[in-house]
Amino acid sequence: MNNAELACQFNSIRCGDKTAFEEIYNDMKTPVYTIICRITRDESLSEDILQEVFVKLFVSPLPPSVKNPRAYVFQMARNLAINGTKQARHISLDEISDTVCQPPDDISLRMDIDDALKALPAQECEIVTLHLIGELKFREIAEIVGVPLGTALWKYRQAIGKLQTSISGGAL
Questions:
Q1: pLDDT for position 106
Q2: Model confidence over 43-88: pLDDT tens digits?
Q3: Secondary structure in 3-state letters for the chain
Q4: Among 33, 113, 145, 167, which is most buried by a count of CB atoms within 10 Å?
Q5: Residue closest to 96 by CA, chosen among 109, 81, 108, 117
């Protein structure tokens, strides 16, 4: 779903259309969950945060002034994931697990990719995930992550190189 379609769906939600919310949820749950999971590295916490994101969107849909609904939703998910991770760390570091966050198509390759992503610095992993899974443009990613556009591009290229090296058998 592109930004124009999302804006239209959020307008429908403001008018009480629950079907529009369901369509947004079905379209965005997987990429939003993936981004949350890459930040928290905890499936259970990620599922809770995913629910929190969509409850907030249902209770108070995006204002019409938001020009980029996809980026807004991913920014909300990112912020809640970061906050949730901080709160989880205060509870107990032992509860945070390193689990694969998406069901794999090819288990071996998916595990290699997941391990390679986990080995990346957090910001590089986040940039790769926002671009590939969230389908955001680098300008949007730079804004969400809080870095200049050139830095976001550089970190993405650097991360992709590390991923290629790691998956092809080299070390990060």
A1: 56
A2: 889 999 999 999 998 888 787 788 889 889 999 999 999 888 776 5
A3: CCHHHHHHHHHHHHCCCHHHHHHHHHHHHHHHHHHHHHHHCCHHHHHHHHHHHHHHHHHCCCCCCCCCHHHHHHHHHHHHHHHHHHHHHHHCHHHCCCCCCCCCCCHHHHHHHHHHHHHCCHHHHHHHHHHHCCCCCHHHHHHHHCCCHHHHHHHHHHHHHHHHHHHCCCCC
A4: 33
A5: 81
Rounded distance between C-alpha atoms, residue 46 and residue 57, angstroms: 17
Residue keyed to tokens 């990346």: 120
Query: What sign has the CA pseudo-torsion 122, 128, 134, 140?
Result: positive
pLDDT beneath 50, residues of the chain = 90-104, 172
pTM above 0.85, yes or no: no
The closest alpha carbon to 100, from 125, 117, 79, 85, belongs to: 117
For residue 124, what are its two tokens? 């590089």
* Rounded-to-integer distance, Cα 109 and Cα 142, Å: 29
* Long-range contacts from 19-25, C-beta under 8 angstroms, 24+ separation: 21/54, 21/57, 21/58, 24/57, 25/54
